[in-house]
Design goal:
The chain has 3 helices and 2 strands, in the order ββααα. Strands 1-2 form a two-stranded antiparallel ribbon. The chain has one domain. Helix content is about 35%, strand content about 15%. By secondary structure, it is α+β, with helices and mostly antiparallel strands.
Length: about 45
């Protein structure tokens, strides 16, 4: 399985597949529409 995330120009998650759900232990419903670098993958 290949994980896949796609962001729009504002950095919001628009694609989050099942492989990424499994890898990150976060549901697609929890991540879609959120700002990736602020709310999803905080450093």
């Amino acid at each position: 399985m290949i994980d896949h995330i796609a962001l729009d120009r504002a950095g919001r998650v628009v694609i989050y597949n099942r492989a990424e759900e499994h890898l990150a232990h976060r549901s697609r419903a929890d991540v879609l529409g959120r700002e990736f670098f602020i709310e999803v993958a905080r450093a």
